[in-house]
Amino acid sequence: MSLLSSLLLLIVAARIFGEIFKKLGQPALLGEIIAGIILGPSVLKIVQPTQALSGIADLAMFFIILSAGLEMEFKEVMRSFRGKGLIVAFTSFFIPLACGLLVGVVFRFDLMRTVFLGLCISITALPVSIRILKSLGLLEHPIARFAIVTSVVNDVLALFTLGIILKLPKAQGLSQFAHYLEGSVVKLFLLAVFILSVNYVLEKADSMGIPVRWLPEKLARWFGQDALLGILIVFVLLFGTVSELLGSHFVIGAFFGALLIDRKLFFAERYKEIEQSLSSISSGFLAPIFFIYIGLECNVRVLPGVLLVVTVLAVAMLSKIYAGWLSGRWVGLQGREPLGIGIIMNGRGVMELVVAEIALQHGFINDGLFSLLVLMGVITTFVTPILFDRLVTPHLNVADAKLRKPER
Fold this sequence. Notes:
- This protein is mainly α.
- It has helices at 3-23, 28-39, 51-71, 74-80, 84-106, 111-122, 126-135, 142-167, 174-207, 214-223, 227-245, 250-260, 268-296, 306-330, 337-345, 350-361, 367-391, 398-401.
């Protein structure tokens, strides 16, 4: 089947299954994942995951991040990185990592398989968390701020660790490895400096009364009103590219680039137009492709033994939920909010698939373990909004949380 035919079939199936799940009172992304599983290698074998479809899914991930970043405030997210936010982030990473490593030891995996299993269990995917929070109307809730910080920190730690692991076979001696580790830390520091510097310049210009919105307005006059969206995309792509050049994943930089785009950069009516355009592109077209592709990546036909599958799934979900709940209690959240953080942290998806695919390409894991890791990403992403809607949403204070109704 050609790329365009496959794309047409995926879009139609994603919309149909998404609408069915909406009618059932669930987020559309659950139906989109199920559609991918049915059409993919696991069931009907009609559509196979290809490099081209993977590229489109990456584009979809970018627009999900861009759309969500515009809805959030940079100051609010950065405030969550201080103190309490980091407690939640590190706890939600290292407890699941330790549990994953323990599973590898119990099942007598070799070192690399054990490390990659622990790494994949510890990840929380930023795009998945954002989409779930948005579908549940929670982007303005404190749970969202802790969840976003945790997702970013978890992804950075996972990718940082991944880079170190990939260098292990090449490192000739401890000194060379220490040199690479030092370089990775420096690159991560430079990325943070770049993001904070751009934010400082924008804030300083605004405080000095410099109308920073004149530049995008002038460009819009030169290239046409439709160019505003293109200008915004180029700005965010720049941050993603810098992030990638400095050794972090593209999505980390893109998210912070989108966060920096404040309403003071555009006139109010322009900002609203941009948000509407992005919503049409993201929610209406690309986001369903992203989630249906996650389903395509799952092939249940080559899974390992039942005991290993059940153990990994149970440890992955329970360790994440427990770590989020525990850290939420530590930072003083009340009621069901700590549980809410734990459940949102359970969503994995794209970042875990990236790590698993790299491990497979380098021969660190086999097809069976790869499919198990993909299945883990699919199931954890699938059950997250269901558990949250059942166990947390009814107990949240709607007035204080400024919740919106879930997308229907």
